[in-house]
């Protein structure tokens, strides 16, 4: 895989809440609760899914992605860049 392919954005089409889909509203609520922006929230959820689905028998892999402590979470939240500007759902009228 080339660098250009690896950096290609992933388009997410949000839908209504079902067993296999999630709404944009839910992502926003999760982001607020976690103190993340929406991108961080999606990446965090995918990392959790990775750990659940791609169970590895290697103990080193499991140790690499140990859950963060509340203190570590506070430090991450404190170092997060301050939000600037206005959040808009679309740039189109």
Mean pLDDT: 81
Structural class: mainly alpha
- Profile the largest sheet: none
Count of folded domains: 1
Q: For the CA atoms, what is the radius of gyration?
A: 16 Å
Helix content: 40-55%
What general outline do the C-alpha atoms trace? globular
Encode the helix/strand succession as letters: HHHHH
Our count of helices gives 5
Uncertain residue ranges: none
Q: Number of DSSP strands?
A: 0
Strand content: under 5%
Distance between the termini: 37 Å
SSE layout:
Layout: H1 3-6, H2 24-34, H3 38-53, H4 59-64, H5 70-79
Helix pairs in contact: 2-3
Q: Which key features would you list for this structure?
A:
93 residues; single chain; mainly alpha
Your description of this structure?
- The protein has 93 residues and is mainly alpha-helical.
- The longest helix is centred in the middle third of the chain and has 16 residues.
- Helices cover 51% and strands 0% of the residues.
- 1% of the residues are buried.
- It has one domain.
Give a nutshell description of this structure.
By secondary structure, the chain is mostly helical. It has helices spanning 3-6, 24-34, 38-53, 59-64, 70-79.
């Amino acid at each position: 895989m080339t660098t250009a392919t690896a950096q290609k954005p992933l388009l997410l089409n949000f839908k209504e809440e079902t067993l296999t889909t999630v709404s944009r509203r839910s992502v926003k609520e999760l982001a607020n609760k976690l103190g993340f922006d929406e991108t961080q929230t999606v990446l965090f959820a995918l990392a959790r899914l990775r750990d659940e689905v791609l169970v590895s028998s290697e103990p080193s892999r499991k140790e690499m992605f140990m859950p963060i402590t509340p203190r570590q979470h506070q430090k991450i939240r404190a170092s997060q860049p301050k939000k600037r500007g206005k959040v808009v759902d679309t740039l189109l009228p």
